[in-house]
Design goal:
Strand content: 25-35%
Pfam family, one: Ras
Bound molecules: guanosine-5'-diphosphate, magnesium ion
Keywords: Nucleotide-binding
Protein name: Ras- protein RABF2a
Structural class: alpha/beta
InterPro entries: P-loop_NTPase (IPR027417), Small_GTP-bd (IPR005225), Small_GTPase (IPR001806)
Radius of gyration: 17 Å
Strand order of the largest sheet: 2-3-1-4-5-8
Number of strands: 8
Length: about 200
Amino acid sequence: GNKNMNAKLVLLGDVGAGKSSLVLRFVKGQFIEFQESTIGAAFFSQTVAVNDATVKFEIWDTAGQERYHSLAPMYYRGAAAAIIVYDITNQASFDRAKKWVQELQAQGNPNMVMALAGNKADLIDARKVAAEVIPLGTKLKYSSSNQDMSKIVVQDRKPEAQTYAEENGLFFMETSAKTALNVNDVFSEIAKRLPRL
Ligand code: GDP
Ligand code: MG
Protein backbone atom coordinates (compact mmCIF):
# COMPACT_ATOMS: atom_id res chain seq x y z
CA GLY A 1 0.00 0.00 0.00
CA ASN A 2 0.78 3.68 0.03
CA LYS A 3 3.51 4.64 2.50
CA ASN A 4 2.30 8.19 3.02
CA MET A 5 -1.21 9.07 3.97
CA ASN A 6 -3.21 12.07 5.12
CA ALA A 7 -5.68 11.73 7.94
CA LYS A 8 -8.24 14.26 9.07
CA LEU A 9 -8.39 14.32 12.88
CA VAL A 10 -10.76 16.28 15.10
CA LEU A 11 -10.42 17.16 18.79
CA LEU A 12 -13.68 17.36 20.71
CA GLY A 13 -14.42 17.98 24.36
CA ASP A 14 -15.45 20.51 26.93
CA VAL A 15 -14.06 24.03 27.02
CA GLY A 16 -10.96 24.05 29.18
CA ALA A 17 -10.25 20.31 28.94
CA GLY A 18 -6.98 21.06 27.17
CA LYS A 19 -7.63 20.35 23.48
CA SER A 20 -5.65 23.34 22.22
CA SER A 21 -2.88 22.64 24.72
CA LEU A 22 -2.57 19.02 23.51
CA VAL A 23 -2.31 20.22 19.92
CA LEU A 24 0.23 22.90 20.82
CA ARG A 25 2.31 20.29 22.68
CA PHE A 26 2.09 17.83 19.79
CA VAL A 27 2.73 20.30 16.96
CA LYS A 28 5.17 22.75 18.58
CA GLY A 29 6.39 21.02 21.75
CA GLN A 30 5.15 23.94 23.84
CA PHE A 31 2.78 24.55 26.74
CA ILE A 32 1.13 27.82 27.72
CA GLU A 33 -0.26 28.19 31.25
CA PHE A 34 -2.90 30.68 30.10
CA GLN A 35 -3.93 29.25 26.77
CA GLU A 36 -6.59 31.42 25.12
CA SER A 37 -10.00 29.95 24.38
CA THR A 38 -10.44 28.75 20.83
CA ILE A 39 -12.95 30.67 18.73
CA GLY A 40 -14.73 28.49 16.18
CA ALA A 41 -11.94 26.07 15.33
CA ALA A 42 -8.24 26.13 14.50
CA PHE A 43 -6.31 24.07 11.97
CA PHE A 44 -2.88 22.48 12.36
CA SER A 45 -0.94 19.78 10.64
CA GLN A 46 1.77 17.44 11.84
CA THR A 47 3.35 14.31 10.42
CA VAL A 48 4.21 11.19 12.38
CA ALA A 49 6.17 8.14 11.30
CA VAL A 50 4.74 4.71 12.07
CA ASN A 51 6.57 1.57 11.10
CA ASP A 52 7.64 2.28 7.51
CA ALA A 53 4.91 4.78 6.72
CA THR A 54 4.12 8.41 7.50
CA VAL A 55 0.77 9.85 8.46
CA LYS A 56 0.15 13.53 7.97
CA PHE A 57 -2.52 14.58 10.46
CA GLU A 58 -4.79 17.42 9.39
CA ILE A 59 -5.96 18.51 12.81
CA TRP A 60 -9.13 20.45 13.60
CA ASP A 61 -9.08 21.82 17.13
CA THR A 62 -12.68 22.77 17.95
CA ALA A 63 -13.93 25.34 20.46
CA GLY A 64 -16.05 23.15 22.72
CA GLN A 65 -18.57 25.85 23.61
CA GLU A 66 -22.19 24.77 23.38
CA ARG A 67 -22.97 27.72 21.11
CA TYR A 68 -20.60 26.29 18.50
CA HIS A 69 -22.11 22.80 18.75
CA SER A 70 -23.93 23.05 15.43
CA LEU A 71 -20.59 23.57 13.68
CA ALA A 72 -19.04 20.38 15.05
CA PRO A 73 -20.27 18.06 12.26
CA MET A 74 -18.28 20.11 9.75
CA TYR A 75 -15.16 19.08 11.60
CA TYR A 76 -15.92 15.45 12.42
CA ARG A 77 -17.63 14.59 9.14
CA GLY A 78 -15.16 12.67 7.00
CA ALA A 79 -12.64 12.58 9.83
CA ALA A 80 -10.52 9.43 10.05
CA ALA A 81 -9.86 9.95 13.74
CA ALA A 82 -11.09 11.82 16.79
CA ILE A 83 -9.57 12.58 20.16
CA ILE A 84 -12.23 13.17 22.78
CA VAL A 85 -10.65 15.08 25.62
CA TYR A 86 -11.76 15.52 29.22
CA ASP A 87 -10.06 16.96 32.27
CA ILE A 88 -9.37 14.34 34.99
CA THR A 89 -10.10 16.99 37.64
CA ASN A 90 -13.56 17.76 36.27
CA GLN A 91 -16.34 15.17 36.34
CA ALA A 92 -18.62 17.32 34.16
CA SER A 93 -16.00 17.31 31.42
CA PHE A 94 -16.00 13.48 31.50
CA ASP A 95 -19.80 13.46 31.17
CA ARG A 96 -19.46 15.86 28.25
CA ALA A 97 -16.88 13.57 26.64
CA LYS A 98 -19.36 10.69 26.75
CA LYS A 99 -21.91 12.85 24.94
CA TRP A 100 -19.37 13.49 22.19
CA VAL A 101 -18.70 9.77 21.89
CA GLN A 102 -22.44 9.12 21.52
CA GLU A 103 -22.71 11.79 18.86
CA LEU A 104 -19.77 10.39 16.91
CA GLN A 105 -21.16 6.87 17.16
CA ALA A 106 -24.48 8.12 15.77
CA GLN A 107 -23.28 10.63 13.16
CA GLY A 108 -19.59 10.06 12.51
CA ASN A 109 -17.69 7.86 10.10
CA PRO A 110 -18.21 4.27 11.33
CA ASN A 111 -14.53 3.41 10.80
CA MET A 112 -13.32 6.40 12.77
CA VAL A 113 -10.45 5.69 15.14
CA MET A 114 -11.43 7.23 18.48
CA ALA A 115 -9.20 8.03 21.41
CA LEU A 116 -10.36 9.08 24.86
CA ALA A 117 -7.79 11.35 26.48
CA GLY A 118 -7.99 12.04 30.22
CA ASN A 119 -5.92 15.23 30.21
CA LYS A 120 -4.25 17.19 33.05
CA ALA A 121 -2.91 13.92 34.44
CA ASP A 122 -0.24 16.00 36.20
CA LEU A 123 -2.91 17.37 38.58
CA ILE A 124 -3.09 14.23 40.71
CA ASP A 125 -4.14 16.01 43.89
CA ALA A 126 -7.30 17.24 42.19
CA ARG A 127 -8.29 14.03 40.39
CA LYS A 128 -12.05 13.43 40.14
CA VAL A 129 -12.26 10.83 37.38
CA ALA A 130 -10.60 7.51 38.16
CA ALA A 131 -8.66 5.86 35.39
CA GLU A 132 -8.72 2.32 36.68
CA VAL A 133 -9.82 0.28 39.67
CA ILE A 134 -7.93 1.29 42.76
CA PRO A 135 -8.66 -1.20 45.56
CA LEU A 136 -9.75 0.05 48.95
CA GLY A 137 -6.87 0.57 51.34
CA THR A 138 -4.34 1.24 48.61
CA LYS A 139 -1.74 3.78 49.64
CA LEU A 140 -1.33 6.29 46.82
CA LYS A 141 2.05 7.98 46.78
CA TYR A 142 2.82 11.11 44.92
CA SER A 143 4.97 14.14 45.20
CA SER A 144 3.70 17.65 45.21
CA SER A 145 5.99 20.69 45.20
CA ASN A 146 8.97 18.64 46.34
CA GLN A 147 7.09 17.03 49.22
CA ASP A 148 6.48 13.33 49.30
CA MET A 149 2.90 12.68 50.22
CA SER A 150 0.70 9.68 50.47
CA LYS A 151 -3.01 9.07 50.71
CA ILE A 152 -5.00 6.01 51.60
CA VAL A 153 -7.93 5.17 49.36
CA VAL A 154 -10.98 5.09 51.61
CA GLN A 155 -13.61 5.15 48.93
CA ASP A 156 -14.00 2.62 46.18
CA ARG A 157 -12.88 4.36 43.00
CA LYS A 158 -14.75 3.26 39.95
CA PRO A 159 -12.74 2.33 36.85
CA GLU A 160 -14.78 4.85 34.95
CA ALA A 161 -12.59 5.95 32.11
CA GLN A 162 -10.85 2.72 31.08
CA THR A 163 -14.05 0.70 31.36
CA TYR A 164 -16.06 3.25 29.45
CA ALA A 165 -13.48 3.31 26.67
CA GLU A 166 -13.36 -0.49 26.38
CA GLU A 167 -17.13 -0.74 26.26
CA ASN A 168 -17.37 1.87 23.56
CA GLY A 169 -14.56 0.91 21.20
CA LEU A 170 -12.20 3.74 22.04
CA PHE A 171 -8.67 3.46 23.27
CA PHE A 172 -7.87 5.33 26.43
CA MET A 173 -4.83 7.20 27.67
CA GLU A 174 -4.26 9.79 30.33
CA THR A 175 -2.27 12.71 29.02
CA SER A 176 -0.69 15.91 30.21
CA ALA A 177 -0.12 18.75 27.78
CA LYS A 178 1.90 20.35 30.58
CA THR A 179 4.42 17.55 31.14
CA ALA A 180 4.00 16.00 27.66
CA LEU A 181 2.91 12.68 29.18
CA ASN A 182 1.46 10.42 26.44
CA VAL A 183 0.84 13.29 24.04
CA ASN A 184 2.87 11.93 21.13
CA ASP A 185 1.71 8.44 22.09
CA VAL A 186 -1.97 9.23 21.51
CA PHE A 187 -1.24 10.43 17.99
CA SER A 188 1.11 7.52 17.24
CA GLU A 189 -1.42 5.00 18.50
CA ILE A 190 -4.08 6.55 16.26
CA ALA A 191 -1.67 6.41 13.31
CA LYS A 192 -1.10 2.71 13.97
CA ARG A 193 -4.81 1.99 14.12
CA LEU A 194 -5.79 3.83 10.94
CA PRO A 195 -6.96 1.48 8.20
CA ARG A 196 -3.95 0.92 5.93
CA LEU A 197 -4.24 1.95 2.33
P1 GDP B 1 -9.47 23.79 25.47
O1 GDP B 1 -10.57 24.77 25.74
O2 GDP B 1 -9.96 22.37 25.56
O3 GDP B 1 -8.76 24.05 24.18
O4 GDP B 1 -8.42 23.94 26.66
P2 GDP B 1 -7.04 24.76 26.67
O5 GDP B 1 -6.00 24.05 25.88
O6 GDP B 1 -7.32 26.18 26.28
O7 GDP B 1 -6.63 24.66 28.20
C1 GDP B 1 -7.43 25.20 29.23
C2 GDP B 1 -6.54 25.52 30.44
O8 GDP B 1 -6.03 24.31 31.00
C3 GDP B 1 -5.32 26.38 30.08
O9 GDP B 1 -5.10 27.29 31.13
C4 GDP B 1 -4.18 25.38 30.01
O10 GDP B 1 -2.95 25.95 30.32
C5 GDP B 1 -4.60 24.34 31.03
N1 GDP B 1 -4.12 22.99 30.68
C6 GDP B 1 -4.28 22.36 29.50
N2 GDP B 1 -3.72 21.15 29.54
C7 GDP B 1 -3.20 20.99 30.78
C8 GDP B 1 -2.49 19.93 31.43
O11 GDP B 1 -2.22 18.85 30.89
N3 GDP B 1 -2.13 20.14 32.73
C9 GDP B 1 -2.42 21.31 33.38
N4 GDP B 1 -2.01 21.42 34.64
N5 GDP B 1 -3.07 22.33 32.80
C10 GDP B 1 -3.47 22.16 31.51
MG1 MG C 1 -9.17 25.46 22.70
